[in-house]
Amino acid sequence: MEKNISEIEKEFLEYVKKMGAYNEALGLIYWDLRTGAPREGHVQRSEVIGVLQSEVFKMSVSDEMEAYIEKLSGNVPGSVTNKVLEECKKNFERNRKIPESLFREYVVLQARAESIWEEAKKASDFEMFRPYLEKLVAIQKQFIEYWGYTGNPYNSLLDMYEPGITVEVLDDVFAKLRDKIVPLVSEIAKSGKKPETGFLFHHFPKESQREFSLEALKQIGYNFNAGRLDETVHPFATGLNPGDVRVTTNYDENDFRTAVFGTIHEGGHALYEQNISKELIGTPLCSGTSMGIHESQSLFYENFVGRSLGFWKNNLDLLKKYADGQFDGISIEDFYRAINESKPSYIRIEADELTYPLHIIIRYEIEKGLFNNEIEVKELPEVWNRKYEQYLGIRPRNDAEGVLQDVHWSGGSFGYFPSYALGYMYAAQFMNTLKKEMPEYARLLETGEYLPIKEWFTKHVHFFGKMKKPLEILVDATGEGLNPDYLIEYLYEKYSGVYCLNID
Amino acid sequence: MEKNISEIEKEFLEYVKKMGAYNEALGLIYWDLRTGAPREGHVQRSEVIGVLQSEVFKMSVSDEMEAYIEKLSGNVPGSVTNKVLEECKKNFERNRKIPESLFREYVVLQARAESIWEEAKKASDFEMFRPYLEKLVAIQKQFIEYWGYTGNPYNSLLDMYEPGITVEVLDDVFAKLRDKIVPLVSEIAKSGKKPETGFLFHHFPKESQREFSLEALKQIGYNFNAGRLDETVHPFATGLNPGDVRVTTNYDENDFRTAVFGTIHEGGHALYEQNISKELIGTPLCSGTSMGIHESQSLFYENFVGRSLGFWKNNLDLLKKYADGQFDGISIEDFYRAINESKPSYIRIEADELTYPLHIIIRYEIEKGLFNNEIEVKELPEVWNRKYEQYLGIRPRNDAEGVLQDVHWSGGSFGYFPSYALGYMYAAQFMNTLKKEMPEYARLLETGEYLPIKEWFTKHVHFFGKMKKPLEILVDATGEGLNPDYLIEYLYEKYSGVYCLNID
């Protein structure tokens, strides 16, 4: 007897629930590996990861999955099931279009390239890494042909991380950003002004940094019954399910900013995952909708809250309480200027708010060039250094602080970098609307009442998980499409304040 | 084209490796749940457990598994594959013989019974729990009929936890134990002697207890590159793989013995799992061979090492260093007598070394009676209390401190209790051989050189995983079958020393 549609739908939802369960187990395994799993167990744990991952992959491209998509698409009433189908179909098509032998070659190459990249970075020698990167780019170009694309081939990669965002959009917004940020950066350099920052770098015991970080997480509305804070080397947040969203941080005892701003950043990611609608649990929709929207949440809290004057008006005394006297006698204004010093630097992840977008734009321009056959891999060190000189006024002295600094390309992650800058623009655009809808916004920052802010984001962003695409979220929340002006305005206002510049 | 045997063998080993991977993921999930997983994520985490467990179960009884067993049994050369087949066949037959509907009924009942037991224990009301226990026993009796048995029906249950051990064996050894321990217990009571114990119960900060516990683990040879110590409510050790064997403990700040002896106990389990042959990783043979042999390792370290005079000659000063002065002026002899006080008590898990076996024997006699239709569930409180009075000279005042104290029956674990006493007898028998083969044993205890002891156990016990059955291990290591005399001798010697009795 033929099964009816609602029986098939039920089976399909069980099927994706199983994939979700494997992914949740994988999430816990990764968290554990990065927060203290005993070293000698790692090799066998990798086997476990391999088994679970390949099971999820097989399920995503199976004939069963194909049959569910065919039978159910357009035939079920529920909006959740339809979105789940859409999501599964996208993955199915992406993964099925690649010939298995090419995919296997790629997976082996990825693993090898990452360890070669590590060595090359240590030796600061791009030539070591070059042949692997060439092969990675070549295979990605083949993937793009299999996947197909509209407009620019690079769009096919962007679509993976930020559906709806294309070269056509990015060329425009990144040009605007670049043309406004570059002069501001050079204006600051010309002013010769430099905030006093020496007091930042005193010894601040790890345990006390942790105490303050916990307080900061609590303030922004992180739910400790649905999460925990642990220590790791490379900080991250991970949403295993909305009731279990973990934050990690690392501590530099001679620079408290690493842990404090790092924790608030990851806390922003965590607020997103903690507040997704419970209705989506067990489906692939139960996570942030895109890298960019995710980053909008972390950057909003890290920069717009954590690096704001208001936040520190409310928290500097608390920080002083935990510190060993390093901030005694430091005024709130001096503290604010110190933590917001802007100066061109080589390393993206150490960049300040103002110069950060330029790091991203450089990578975007290079990736676009690569996938449009306008730049060859062998030219990368030279192109990289030239762009740093042009946009930031500094020229990396070697490959380690230049083209080899980031892990992304070694793992084949092309098209990912733009999300960081997109997130920043989304965040500024959200803030603009938030301030309009919440006239007491500035006061809330100073009094530490951050919950209404979290609630606004939950209502407009968090709740939907992957039920809405990134631009849908943005337009529904702010009433317009991506507009870089809000970020530009914010940066001009903030940095002319920090550096007492007269710019209009 | 037909696959040849070695291809099928390879496939089969991949198949069991996959089951092992799911089990390892489950192990990590359980560890995490019991050491700090955020509360609000538990419900969804249970779903993940359900998915993984049902997958492992399905794989263990699948037609594929059946085909592997049929095609490979007796047709492969390797001793490992043959043992894996044997293990899989045993599970397959156990699980396939039960009708699915009965098994489902049982699983639902188990979950329900456990929460009812919790309530019943709180209310100290056996009648609340009785109907569930009756049903559990009734279904287990049906299982026994499906599984079949030799000799006594209760053997079918014993075989799950301690293959090779039967009612015929236990009746004999437990009678000997009981007939020797009961008079010794009453001798001690009659002597009227009671060691001074007041100094044990001072405030000992948790952090310091942890430091001492870590030192103790290190001394016995626990490898911290392949493990870690965490806090939990109900302590356990878990071997995810030999490179990742975790120990947990809990701290009572007014009784350091809970953490210290608990950690050493779990450390003994952990030494077993850390030292299984690497060759067995990824197979179902990579864990302790039975509950009883496992318990022999934990009890050996907890009692024969941790509660010995030698261990404290070497460690009392260290304990004094961590404690807040509570042991100042206490002699090693007084300390030793205090931690080895013996007195009849109601609660098994709080019992001392001497009375502990009686708690087990009572449960054994009751279980045997239940499954031989000589005792009815409704009679349990009365039977229980009568036996406590008869063997220990005390009568529980209510069900909570009597028949309802242990969780085991609520989960349907009948046949499990005897392992605890078996482990104790195995341990004493191992020690007897160890002392003969290592004449310096007593000196090693006093000087803290415990590694040769660990190495002896690794060579004779740990290394084999499930490659050998429990009695095979015992006979190969000690040259004889189970002999309760060694435990009896040990107890007489120890307790006539602690209580200065003149017994021969």
UniProtKB/TrEMBL annotation, chains A, B:
GO terms for biological process: proteolysis. Its cofactor is Zn(2+). The keyword Metal-binding applies. It catalyses: Release of a C-terminal amino acid with broad specificity, except for -Pro. InterPro entries: Peptidase_M32_Taq. Its EC number is 3.4.17.19. The keyword Translocase does not apply. It holds the Pfam family Peptidase_M32. Gene3D superfamilies: 1.10.1370.30. The active site is at 266 (proton donor/acceptor). SUPFAM superfamilies: Metalloproteases ('zincins'), catalytic domain. Binds 1 zinc ion per subunit. One of its GO terms (molecular function) is zinc ion binding. Zn(2+) binds at residues 265, 269, 295. PROSITE patterns: PEPTIDASE_M32. Keywords: Carboxypeptidase, Hydrolase, Metal-binding, Metalloprotease, Protease, Zinc. Belongs to the peptidase M32 family. Broad specificity carboxypetidase that releases amino acids sequentially from the C-terminus, including neutral, aromatic, polar and basic residues. This is Metal-dependent carboxypeptidase. It comes from Neobacillus piezotolerans. The lineage of its organism: Bacteria, Bacillati, Bacillota, Bacilli, Bacillales.
